Structures are given as structure tokens and as C-alpha cells.
Amino acid sequence: MRISQVGEFGLIQILKGILSSPVIGDDTAPVHLNDKTLLLTTDSMLEDRHFKRFYPPQAVGWKAISVNVSDVVASGGNPLWVLISLALPDLEVSYVESLYEGIKTACDFYNCHVVGGNLTKSDRIMIDVFMIGKAERFVSRSGAKPGDKLYVSGTLGDSKAGLELLLMERRQYEEFELKLIERHTRPTARIDYTRHISKYANACIDISDGLSSDVWHISRMSNVKININSKDIPISQELRLFCNKHGKDPLDYALSGGEDYQLLFTHPEDRYNPFLDMRSIGSVEEGYGVYLDGRELSPSGFDHFKLA
Amino acid sequence: MRISQVGEFGLIQILKGILSSPVIGDDTAPVHLNDKTLLLTTDSMLEDRHFKRFYPPQAVGWKAISVNVSDVVASGGNPLWVLISLALPDLEVSYVESLYEGIKTACDFYNCHVVGGNLTKSDRIMIDVFMIGKAERFVSRSGAKPGDKLYVSGTLGDSKAGLELLLMERRQYEEFELKLIERHTRPTARIDYTRHISKYANACIDISDGLSSDVWHISRMSNVKININSKDIPISQELRLFCNKHGKDPLDYALSGGEDYQLLFTHPEDRYNPFLDMRSIGSVEEGYGVYLDGRELSPSGFDHFKLA
Known about the structure:
Two copies of one chain form a homodimer.
Chain A: H1 3-19, E1 29-33, E2 36-46, H2 57-74, E3 77-88, H3 93-110, E4 113-121, E5 126-135, E6 149-153, H4 158-167, H5 175-185, H6 194-200, E7 203-206, H7 211-222, E8 224-228, H8 237-246, H9 250-256, E9 263-267, E10 278-286, E11 289-292, E12 295-296
Parallel strand pairs in A: 3-4, 8-11
Antiparallel strand pairs in A: 1-2, 2-5, 3-5, 6-9, 6-10, 7-9, 8-10, 11-12
């Protein structure tokens, strides 16, 4: 049997069995050292899979850090230390310098530090980032409670539209198009939510594979039923313009577009914070499954292996 | 200017400058959390660069963990937690299971735990291991003192001979040849030395690139002169047999053969421990450079980029 037959999530289940490890399967792995909770996570960016050589290397470096910070924030923490494992072809040194400038800018922004790493030669660029964060309280995917509301930060679907625009490789883009491209190439992890998530969220995940896929992780791991109202899903003005122009449905982008790196979380309604760009898009009940406007939602997000 | 022109170590210097990080350049990065010292390290195994697809996957998994433990031990610590970032083609699931069985066996042996990881699809197998260890005292490459003796654990050069034998892809191997192959494919990190290194070593490095290259790191970073006596360098019986058979000089293998994962360390002579397989191969003086039998030793180890 090949990996493509069991898929990414099937393979993870098999490997969990071999390791007999209960903790694997959250945004970060919490470990305890005396009275501290450290959050460990890793995420990689592979050339031709997550980015192209023609992307600005500063943006690639920024994103490599941001996607890891996003996992730390979703677990209720702040990033502390970073190791970078780079696999590189024989590139121009200036490319690697720009990549590292992006990494450094991101680390300064998120207030964490690259403390080490490793270099290997390879055919394609691969940036493996390992990050250690610290949390006052670890927030998992499995704590959603019946009665909670479901919230999302920011707007959804922008990154997918930005990717499609980028791959057109046009000479000229309109201003709203450049904003969408920027949301794909330079996403900002929602570190402004760490305090809110850490204090109030019962469950949280960052939206990396797409809302329709990631909401299932909360539903399954929390053993709850989740209802989503499509009219409440936040769509940006830029995505609306894009969809009008290309005859697309913004809801499709919001549901299945990955790499938005927004946060999806649940807590009681009275914890709503009007100073954050959070929006209630649904509710948590006893039961099983995810429903959109009353109909079961199929998890249509991205499986690296199954779609390959 | 391309990476091949500045080399691996040149590139590391450039990247250190961008990050303005003083700690990069040791076996592990020490970070402090309250009164604890954590050691962070990462090392990767890339198909066709560090191993071939025909190698037993259990051995590949074992080695991926061992090379990281070796760095932690060289810093005077014990491993605690592991994250694994896997980049995989669409392989047989059984291959990945065997790889993880090797990882699990190694983690059980070294008493550490895989707590998480990441999966990405790629053309070649890449195993990026991220390890966190703990040390009572961080031992760096930079603490060697004039008056110290230079010690090495185990025997040197076996791994390179094992690699050459393996690449012959013969049907039959003699028993001593199988032992050399085993030292290449399943090296054991010297975790039995953690206590000794942590208590007594002034400087330590694990021999991954080769003695002649790695000893220079201690010399440069400690600002000392190091003298090595070639007749004291420990050579295994198996390597002698191999060299006799193939008309090679075992000293060449011991000096420039990498991946032995033995420890090279310095401390005063009265800290010698006869219960360990340690051997004094030289001495530390005031001055600069590394000398073998009185002649300057050129750092002939492995540079991933310059040799490419």
C-alpha cells in the first residue's frame, strides 16, 4: 500500500501507533519543564510545492517563520527560539542572504530568536523551521464545549486567490490584486490574539489547510457537532472584487482555500472581544460532524499526499 | 557569488552576521529557561546524499536520531524531546513504518521521545530531526585550555570504510566488513559519555566531518594550539583488515573519514577515566593551529558545498 492510498492523515495515524505517542496531532506539542509549558512545532517550505524560485526570497523567509508562529499562537503561546534547517542547491549567496533577511525581519516582528540550524546540499530549496514557544496555558483542538460559539479572525480565502493571481505571472496587477498576493506570500501570524486565545479559548486551530478541513479537526478531536452559517464567514472586499472579475464564488475560496493562517476557535459568547477582528461564524453543540447552513460539510481541504 | 565559492562554513558566517546571533556555531544552541539549560539542535538525512533508498529504513531512522543525540552529548547533555519533519515521495507505507520503527528504537535506547512533526511531499526522502536536550552544564567547542590533553572516544575511520564497502553493493561480505558497514549505517551516539563530558570536559565536539576538520573547530574557537600524535589515534582491528586488503592507509580514514560520531574533547590528564574507551591523542598549548606529529594539519574534512 502506498502513501497516496492512505493519505497524509492516515499515515500520521499509523506513525502515531508506532511511536505510541498520545500528544501528536495538535498544532504544537506541549512539553512540561518544571512549572513551564513549552510548545514545540515544525513546518517546512519546499520549493515548487510551497513557493517558486521567482518569489521574493525575503517573503519566503518571512512566511517560513510566520507559519510556525501561527501554530504557536493557535496553542495559546508566544514564540521564543527558532532553529532553521536549510537544504539548498548551489544558489547565489545573495538569494540566501535575502531569505535570511526575511527570517530575521519576521523573528524581530514576532519577538523570537534564531539560535541555530543546519545546512545541507540538495536539488531544491527546503526550509525546515523548528520553533519553541511558551504558553501560560496550552490550548488544544480538543477542548470545544457544547454552548461555545465558533469564531474566526480576519478574513478567509484571500491567500488562495492571491496564489492564483501570482501563478498568472502577469506584468501588471491592480491594487486589490496585489493585496491578495501579499496575503499569500507574506501572511502575518495572528500574534495579536495570543492573549485572547490563551485566556479564553476552549479550542483553537490555525487555518492552514482551509476552513472546511480544519474545522473538522476541532469537531473530531473535541467530539462535538459544529454548525457554521455561511453568511457570517468573513470575506474581504479584495476577494469579492477578485471573484466578481473571474466569475467565482467567494464562499468556495473561504471554505477550501488554505494558507490563510487565521485562527479558528471556540469559547462562550460573553468572551467576545470587540477590539479584535474576530467574528462568530457558528456554534458548538453536543453531537458529531460539521454542518454548513444545516447540511453536512465535507472536509475539502488540502491533503499533501492524496491530492498529489 | 555562489554558495560553492564561499563554502558551507563561509555561508554560515554570512548568515550569522545577518542574524547577529553570537551562539550559532556549536554542536547545539544552549538556551536558558529559569535555572535550566536546554540544548537545541537539528540535523538532517537526505536521500542520495546521506543514505540510499536500498539501505534498511530502520537503520536510516536509527541514524537520524543518533546523529542528533551525538550533538547533544557533545554539549554535555541528554536528549529529551524530538520533532521529525519528513519530506517523502509516494513510497510504500511499509517503508515509512520501518523508518519510524528505527526512530522509535533509537529514542527508546537514548531515552527521549518523539512529540510531534510534519509531513511534506517531495521527490526525495528527507528526514529533518529537531532535538531538545537538557544539560547540567553546557560544554562548548571554545573552552579548551593550555595544559589540557586531547581525547577521543572509540575508534576512528570505520564509518568511511563501511560506506565504501556498502557502495560496492557486493552479494557477500566478510564478518569484519559487515561490522564496518554497521558502523556507517547504525552509528551509536556516545550517550555513555554524557556524565564524563558534563563533569570534566573543557571543550567537546562530535566527529561528524572527520577528525582533521573537527579538531580545527576546537582550536579556532578556543584560540589554542593542538598537537596530535598520529600513533595514538585509535584504529579498529576491522579497519586495519580493510586497509590491508585494499592497500589503504588507516590514518587517512581516521583523519578525513566523517560520520564516526565519536567524541573529541579536552580536559586535564587527571580526569582520565579508565572505564571509558577514551584515548589521549594529543595536547593543548597556547598558540594557534593544529599539528600532526609536528606538521600543520590541513582541515581535510567534508564541506557539503565546496566538494559538490
